[in-house]
Amino acid sequence: MRLPFLNRSREIAKLERALNSSEPAFIVIYGRRRCGKSTLLQHISRENDIYFLADTQEAPLQIKSLAIEIGRQISGFDQAIYPSWNILFKAVQNQARPGTTLILDEFPYLVQKSPELPSIIQKQIDSRDNKINLVICGSSQRMMQGLVMDGSAPLYGRALEIIKLRPLEAGWLPVALNYDPITAIEAYSIWGGIPRYWELAKQFPDKETACKELVLDRDGVLHDEPMRLLLDDMRGAGQPHSILGLIAGGANRISEIAGRLGKPATSLTRPLTNLIQLGYIKREIPFGENPKSSKKTLYRLKDPFLQFWYRIVMPNYSLLEQGLTDAVLANSKQLTNSQTAEIWEELSRKSTTQLEINGCRWKPASRWWGKGLDGNIMELDLVAESIDGQSILFGEAKWENKTNVQRTLNKLQKQANNFPKISNRKITLALWCKQTKDNSINAQIFNAEDVLSAMKI
């Protein structure tokens, strides 16, 4: 069941501007598997453009397959034999209409079989005779970055646009699955912002059935998804797989992760950095701390789907292999609810930059933890500074059926008064509640619908 084409207005604008420029454009698109790259490319493809989806065949077969696709636009092109990529590209340049766009999807597959291909393409791009646009796309983020961002790579500095396609924001999920706001946030805490996951879930009557059939079932399409993702971008998936599992299980400091792996903490700097760059984990420090010098760094899973998988599927893998999906789902209800509450808290922080709160616009929000002015340890869900630097926002995120607004505000006010980094700024308090709207209290309160509307970006 196909989804409607959702958002991507920013990426489409960049692509159309590049493809409509007076000179032939070289464009690079990359991003995580199932994020909608191919759908985007097909959406912007014009009548005379050539779209080719590569696979893992040997180079001569890939050349033949591409020639067949080109032959759909250039009559007779597929009747010739092309002994090399160089000869094929020269033929395209000679025969294609000026302004034609050649789209090579899953480009890393081609390079794996033909390492010389980037150099051949570089010569074509640099040639005065070049008259076609070229778009390359791939799911191997590490390989795509190496092909175009490494200073020693042949294609370095040639791209007019380099677009990393990111997951969709949560605000688009109600549109995709026709869910009410609360159900949409519960679903987002499982699927995250990956359009293909939404599309797969859409064929089921509810999110629980979708989760059971797609993720928990040993034959489910997404049952082993994390390993596929890691194999796309890692030379070996064992260590990153272990790191993700440990972080999901509560080992959030590098010393804890290293201790459980039996390795020195210094050996984990690179793998953690790689996982951050891929968008799978995030480095979290308290509001107001210097990112370069803070010793309070925590590592957390950034992607909701991976967080769900490593918390629910991985610990129960043996049970799920025996077909005990219903039992695992029932026993995991508390963990699932806890995850939804965490995702709600994160969405509350992300929504802050999109909301006008107490007449102010705000910088990105963070958690804060540490000693208050009274010397006691405390935690705050959300702290942000106003754009003008004159105000500071304190927020609490509650995912419960009914929130006692006044009691929560009183607690938040005490914490704000005890906060050590106010520096004479004006204090604003706000609550993010699952569905409570108490009009009798003059306070800044945002519910699930408010957050999703703000996150439709």
User: Could you give me the name of the CATH homologous superfamily of the largest domain?
Assistant: P-loop containing nucleotide triphosphate hydrolases
**Average pLDDT across residues?**
94
Q: Reading side by side through the largest sheet, how are the strands ordered?
A: 2-3-4-1-5
* Global morphology: globular
Named CATH architecture of the largest domain: 3-Layer(aba) Sandwich
DSSP helical segment count: 21
What number of domains? 3
- The low-confidence parts are none
Would you give an account of this structure?
This protein is α/β, with parallel strands linked by helices and 457 residues long. It folds into three domains: 9-164, Rossmann fold (3-Layer(aba) Sandwich); 204-331, Winged helix-like DNA-binding domain superfamily/Winged helix DNA-binding domain (Arc Repressor Mutant, subunit A, Orthogonal Bundle), CATH 1.10.10; 346-454, 3-Layer(aba) Sandwich (Trna Endonuclease, Chain: A, domain 1), CATH 3.40.1350. It is built from 21 helices and twelve strands. It has helices at residues 9-19, 37-44, 59-71, 85-95, 107-113, 117-126, 141-149, 173-177, 181-191, 195-201, 207-216, 225-233, 238-248, 254-261, 269-277, 304-313, 317-321, 325-331, 333-351, 405-417, 448-454, and strands at residues 26-30, 50-53, 101-105, 133-138, 161-164, 281-284, 298-301, 366-371, 377-385, 391-398, 426-433, 444-446. It has a five-stranded parallel β-sheet with strand order 2-3-4-1-5, with helices on both faces. Strands 8-9-10-11-12 form a five-stranded mixed β-sheet, sandwiched between helices. A hairpin with a 5-residue loop joins strand 9 (377-385) and strand 10 (391-398). Helix 9 packs across helix 16 (304-313), helix 9 crosses helix 19 and helix 19 packs across helix 21. The protein starts with 8 loop residues before the first helix and ends with a helix.
